C-alpha cells in the first residue's frame, strides 16, 4: 500500500514548507530546535540551505516511499484501510520509527483494537523544547487530524 493524496495533503499541511521571498523553500529551526527544510526534512540540513519547490515535493515523496511507508508495512501486522494507512504514515513521519515501534498504540493496533487508536494517536502531543517535554498546540491539531483521518472522517478543517 502507498500513501494517498489525502495522506500526503495532511503531511504537507502540518509540516508546512517555509519559503523565502522568491518562493524557494529555506532552512528553518523547528520548535524542537532542529534545522529543517521543505516538508519536515531534517537529514544533513544546514542553516542557509535553499531548495526549489519541486525539489521539496520530490524529497517528500521519496522519503515517504523509501522510509515511512515501509515502517508501517514492517510494524503493522493487521489489515489497514487506506485512510488508516495514511494516518499512520503521517504519524510516523512526524515521530519516527522507534517511537511507533515501542508504542502502546502499535501493540493495541496489532491486537486488532482499531477503536482505541485515535485516542492513542492524540497522546503524542509533546515535543522536547529546551530539554523539557512540552505540549505544543500544533501537535494537538496534527494529532486530531491524524485521528480523524484514521477513522475515515474529515480532518482538513482542524
Provide keyphrases for this structure.
single chain; 158 residues; Lysozyme
Report a brief summary of the structure.
The chain is 51% helix and 8% strand. By secondary structure, it is mainly alpha-helical. It has a single domain (5-150), classed as Lysozyme.
Q: How would you sum up the major sheet?
A: 2 strands, antiparallel
Strand content: 5-15%
How widely separated are the two ends? 26 Å
User: Which fold name fills CATH's third level, the topology?
Assistant: Lysozyme
List the total number of helices: 7
The rounded Rg comes to: 15 Å
Q: What structural class do helix, strand and pairing data support? A: mainly alpha
Q: Report the uncertain regions.
A: none
Q: Report the count of strand segments.
A: 4
Order of helices and strands: HEEHHHHHEEH
The coarse silhouette is: globular
Q: Give the CATH class.
A: Mainly Alpha
Mean pLDDT: 95
Number of domains: 1
Provide the CATH architecture. Answer: Orthogonal Bundle
**Percent range of helical residues:** 40-55%
Q: Going across the major beta sheet, what is the strand order?
A: 1-2
Amino acid at each position: 500500500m502507498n500513501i494517498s493524496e489525502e495522506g500526503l495533503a495532511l503531511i504537507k499541511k502540518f509540516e508546512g514548507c517555509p519559503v523565502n521571498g522568491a518562493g524557494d523553500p529555506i532552512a528553518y529551526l523547528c520548535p524542537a530546535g532542529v534545522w529543517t527544510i521543505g516538508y519536515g526534512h531534517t537529514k544533513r540540513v544546514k542553516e542557509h540551505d535553499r531548495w526549489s519547490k519541486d525539489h521539496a515535493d520530490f524529497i517528500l515523496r521519496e522519503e515517504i516511499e523509501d522510509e515511512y511507508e515501509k515502517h508501517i508495512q514492517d510494524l503493522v501486522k493487521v489489515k489497514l484501510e487506506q485512510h488508516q494507512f495514511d494516518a499512520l504514515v503521517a504519524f510516523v513521519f512526524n515521530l519516527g520509527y522507534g517511537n511507533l515501534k515501542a508504542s502502546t498504540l502499535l501493540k493495541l493496533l496489532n491486537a486488532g483494537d482499531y477503536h482505541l487508536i485515535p485516542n492513542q494517536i492524540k497522546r503524542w502531543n509533546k515535543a522536547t523544547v529546551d530539554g523539557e517535554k512540552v505540549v505544543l498546540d500544533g501537535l494537538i491539531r496534527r494529532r486530531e487530524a491524524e485521528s480523524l483521518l484514521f477513522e475515515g472522517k474529515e480532518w482538513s478543517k482542524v
